[in-house]
Amino acid sequence: MKRVFSILFALALVLAFSLVATTPVGAATINVPGDQPTLQAAINFANPGDTILVAAGIYNVDAESWQPWGTCIHINKDNLHIKGAGSALTVLDARHTYSVLNAPGPTQLHCTVVWVQAQTCTIEGLTVKRGDYGIRANWNGPSTSLTLIDVVVDANYGNGIIFENNITTATFTNVVAKGSGDRGIYFSPVTAAGAVTLTNTSANNNGHAGFGCQGSIANLSITGGTFNNNTGGLFHHDFATWVGPYYGFGIELWNCVGSVTAVTAAGNGFLGPNTCGGLYGLEGGAGIVVKAGMKLPNNIVITCSDLVNNRNGLWIEDPDSVVHWGACGGWVGSVALQQSDIAGNTEYGVLNMLAFPAPGCPVPVVVTATSNWWNHATGPGPVGPGLGDKVSPQVLFAPWVTESYAASKSVTPTTGGTASFSASQGNIMGLQAVPTHFSHPVPILYGMFKFTICCFSGPVTLTVTLPGPVPVGSRWYKYQGGLWSSLPIGSDNGDNIITVTFTDGGPGDADGSPNGQITDDGGVGDPTPVGWETHPISKVRVLLPWIALFAAIAAGASLFVIRRRRAQS
């Protein structure tokens, strides 16, 4: 009996251990420095799927054990989520230290702060600074899908963030790349990347470019953010060599398909004498450049953006295309720039280098640049008729708008004073004070206003500052198609500031169509009953129906009397 019990007990133990061995281990959370002293130690200890929380502090990562190819932090496990306390609080600093893997001399390497060689990785809430590259993804590794959230890369010798080889997806949200010797953010995949999405991401004060795509991106989306003051000059390239003087681009697109929406590209371009030559001899950088390429068609749509105070606003074509792609260059695709401000660019607002193809090459590429503000109501020159920023041949610039796009504008109401309008998103166009229709059902306190809002997604909240107070309970009254309607107002506290929310195609949109524009004719009305002495027009409204009734009775009585007298005679 004891022997049977021993056998059963042994079998039970074997079964229990087998269940433990086959049960998947849940994702763990590893704290730095609480559980592991350094970030690299935590990565070495982690399993795929784990989260590593890095406490606030400055981490001198160059002091950690060196990883392959002069790397400070090496991420080589899939699906890790590395999360700091916030980009302003958690800092990975390589201190511009030379790699011990190389002998002293001109070929010595700097530390790449973070090198990602994993299929998936999320990095959030930290600053990466003072390395050769800040974050390097997928060099000599598997296809990578990388997510960056609230990440700052600062003061790196080469590229702030660089993607190489095969990229599955890249998603950046609230990322800042600044102070890089080369490009702030650089994509150079061997095969076409899938979706690359940048939201509220900025790349300012870098060398060659803020954002650069020299590989292939099949689905690029850049929404929001600034790409300013990337001024070229001497920049760091391939570790220890320095190249230049060279251009400075806010956004550099080469073999890309996608959209650029609601960005600012300002102050970009090499500031020294131009040494590049070319068709115009003026190609010293640009807010946005779209270059010739053979891997993918450059189908780019740029909308609702500011291309201001650059050397060139939008520049089309690589001046070295003959060298790279042969006599006809490598251009395929199209470029459209619309609903944007093109202003203060010192050479050209839009420079199309493909306006004059070589003999036997395809027809000229025509750039669509309509519905833009060219810094003057008369439009662009010198090919155009106006006094605004210059435009080169083969650019469709008409029609243009006669005022700048802006989220905030002011106007003088018909009642006097100043009314200011500010949109939560998008731009306000055509703001003007207009006469109030005589049939208004309530007092319209400061007259009516007419405007259009464009370049937005979702509901738009308009903040309106009026010359005087707005009584509690007031509404935003609209006159459309002979009928009055009203919308509720926010910030309804009796002061002079109110808010009104509009939806494209909704009750607040005069055109009634979800077409990317909100059109409004409206004003603040006070529906509260008031004394006749305050609003004399209310007397007319109250008495008018009675006057009409008495007039009708009187007319009827007169007609009755007339007919009776005729009958008696």
Quick recap:
By secondary structure, the chain is mostly beta strands.
Description:
This protein is mostly beta strands and 569 residues long. The chain has a domain at 408-525. The protein has four helices and 43 strands. The strands form eight sheets. It has a 15-stranded parallel β-sheet that branches. The protein is elongated.
Descriptive labels:
mainly beta, single chain, 15-stranded parallel sheet, ten-stranded parallel sheet, 569 residues, 43 strands
Number of strands: 43
Report the sheet with the most strands, covering strand number, pairing sense and barrel closure.
Answer: 15 strands, parallel
Radius of gyration, in Å, reads 33 Å
What percent strand? 35-45%
The outline comes out as elongated
Round the mean pLDDT to the nearest integer and report it: 82
Counting DSSP H or I runs of 4 or more residues, the number of helices is 4
N→C terminal distance: 140 Å
- In the predicted model, the low-confidence regions spanning at least 5 consecutive residues are 7-24, 98-108, 274-283, 319-325, 530-542
Structural class: mainly beta
Helix content: 10-25%
Summarize the helices and strands and which ones pair or pack:
Layout: H1 2-22, E1 29-32, H2 39-45, E2 51-54, E3 57-60, E4 71-75, E5 80-84, E6 90-93, E7 112-116, E8 120-129, E9 135-137, E10 144-154, E11 161-165, E12 167-173, E13 176-178, E14 183-189, E15 193-199, E16 202-204, E17 209-213, E18 217-223, E19 235-237, E20 241-243, E21 249-254, E22 256-261, E23 264-266, E24 286-291, E25 298-303, E26 306-308, E27 312-316, H3 321-325, E28 333-338, E29 341-343, E30 348-352, E31 367-368, E32 381-382, E33 390-391, E34 395-396, E35 408-411, E36 419-423, E37 427-434, E38 448-454, E39 460-465, E40 475-480, E41 483-488, E42 497-502, E43 517-525, H4 537-568
Parallel strand pairs: 1-2, 2-5, 3-6, 4-7, 5-8, 6-8, 7-9, 8-10, 9-11, 10-12, 10-13, 11-14, 12-15, 13-16, 14-17, 15-18, 17-21, 18-22, 21-24, 22-25, 23-26, 24-27, 25-28, 26-29, 27-30, 31-34, 32-33
Antiparallel strand pairs: 19-20, 35-36, 36-39, 37-38, 38-43, 39-42, 40-41, 40-43
